[in-house]
Amino acid sequence: GAWAKPSARTVDSVCPYCGVGCALTYHIQPDAQGREHIARVDGRDGVANHERLCVKGRFGFDYVANPARLTVPLIRREGVAKDPEQVKLADWRAVFREATWDEALERAAGGLRNIREQHGGRALAGFGSAKGSNEEAYLFQKLVRAGLRTHNVDHCTRLCHASSVAALLEGIGSGAVSNPVMDVLQADVVLLIGANPTVNHPVAASWMKNAMARGTRFILADPRRTELARKAWMTLQFRADTDLALLNAMLHVVFDEDLLDAESVRDRCHPDEVEAVRKHVAGLSPEAMEPVCGVPAADIRAAARAFATSKGSMILWGMGISQHVHGTDNVRALIALCLLTGQIGRPGTGLHPLRGQNNVQGASDAGLIPMMFPDYVRTQADGAMDKAEHYWKLPPGQLSREPGLTVVEIIHAALEGKIRGMYIEGENPAMSDPDVHHARQALAGLEHLVVQDIFLTETAALADVVLPATAWPEKTGTVTNTDRLVQLGRQALKPPGQARADLWIIQEMGRRLGVAPVAEVDMHGGEAGVGAVFEDMRGMMPSIAGISWDRLQREGAVTYPCAEEDQPGQRVVFIDRFPTADGRAKLLPAPLSFADERPDNAYPHVLITGRELEHWHTGAMTRHASVLDALEPQATVSAHPSLLAKLGVAPGEVLRVESRRGAIQLATRADPGMPEDAVFIPFAYAEAAANLLTNAALDPWGKIAEVKYCAVRLSKAEAE
Ligand code: SF4
């Protein structure tokens, strides 16, 4: 078959799915009609993967050639209303008509321009994408700030690690990881909490398994007993939402058993803050917390002892930690644990929030967040606006002085009619936002919505103008992985039909909104202009000062921070000081607090949402990838066999899951690793959208929604 044929051509790139950032090579072949396609993908010897790939990186690419791709600009037909209940369009031609690029761009930008002129920039917002390149993220936030005249610009980082970043910036002055994933091979102890890497970061999980085989002691802490538990040294299966009970109890042991690292406490912390944490955890002993979190006190003590006393301990965490109303406090507790025990600043130690999307790190670095310009310069800091205006050659005062809103705040503001127009590039809030029914109503209620994407997503179904964009293999650009590794991906295929490179579309929108283009960029995704945009971005980002476009062309991948072109980039950071005013960390007590919506008599069970191996986020790519969709074709809900027995539902039978916000029905899957009071649903399936049920309550610091936990009731579905 095609697999065995010699390839006509190879192109080097990076996997477009998760934050591990596996380097790969596409093998491109012409089909019988001479159209080129990706015949197969091989892992390349990249820094993060050493030739390894998971099922998504190896088999997840034919979404690019799916006939459902958008290939022509679309404009909503006159008089066709937006229906928030109908986001899967049976016949898109009844809703949209085809248009030329000129007409579509003029309509798209014109609608935003009108709102800007009548109501000001505060009535507008933009969502960019963590799946786009750094150059796209940079240019998009520039367009929103300078062209739409608002800082209402954000992306899905708000829904994954915003609380981690808030706590890390506050605590140690930087939101990025201290050490790369691969350091698990040098660690003696690894605390892996609220993460399921075999599913979400599979190649990273393979390094973790290698580390376990070499003797690294893994402490796996999660409400679900996931696959890595089979090899873990210790499993702490705590009750969902009791992270703070577990972590405060571990901190209690550090003080109680005098496991503090004197040097770290003396040189890297403030004595009054250490004292405040000590006082706070004094009453939160493992024995007192055992009834709360369900983990035997002796296990909590053993875990804390191992972590504190090993020669190198590392913490890796995922969204089980961050997607809570107490997500920022969860991470504050992790930072305190690391600092008080001196487990940072060396290989095999440190703090690593496992980044979800392929470019969630890079998009945040590039300023695709409301409160920061590129390189985390606070928009409200003294002189920051003036500097940005000067660099972008804008007239003084052009940038709004009002702070911007975040993802969920923008949706709330749209529901209230305060946001009237939006430009959404490559994101799907009609699937990904919490309490998505509200998000769909908000999007449908906008006066003007422009969506730029590769498929007619649930969000695009509510648009006024749809702009057909490029898939990752169709363009050149850089992405930054969870380890701070900036990597170059090269164009392998031409975009289909009239689809155009995202960078070109953003620039064309910018032209029409009064933002001068950075360079003449290639409309078909080629290299022309991408380097100039990268260099423009680099000029605002000291962290990548030593990573020039030329260097990326030669080396393909360079880690930041990297100050000079002849430096390799720093794999391990915070060796002797943090990027804070005095070089020390700031420790804060993390009060014991719980979910916004706890189970009660009416809704007695817990819903946990997340991802599964084969499907990525809202499924826009993977559900159009034939191998992946064949492996997992159907939405399922996982539950403990004893819970299913209590409900009288056999595995495979249909369960109704209902929260205060909605109800869905899905086939059940028995999973003995689940807690007995909770169910797990992946959020990739539009036909049973988990986010119809989730709670939009926000963490006050990170403004992240509590999509990991809400109350539901369960019943056997009535036969139809
Ligand atoms: Fe792609 Fe992540 Fe799988 Fe690597 S581990 S192949 S980056 S999805």
Automatic annotation (TrEMBL):
Boundaries of each 4Fe-4S Mo/W bis-MGD-type domain copy?
Answer: 8-68
Q: Which GO terms describe its biological process?
A: respiratory electron transport chain
Please, which domain of life does this record's source organism belong to? Bacteria
**Listed GO cellular component terms?**
membrane; oxidoreductase complex
Does the record bear Chloroplast in its keywords?
no
| Alphabetized GO MF terms | 4 iron, 4 sulfur cluster binding; metal ion binding; molybdopterin cofactor binding; NADH dehydrogenase activity
- Tell me which UniProt keywords the record has, alphabetically: 4Fe-4S, Iron, Iron-sulfur, Metal-binding, Oxidoreductase, Repeat
Give the protein name, as stated in the record.
Tungsten-containing formate dehydrogenase alpha subunit
Organism for this UniProt entry: Thiomonas delicata
Q: Which residues of the full protein are shown?
A: 251 to 970 of 975
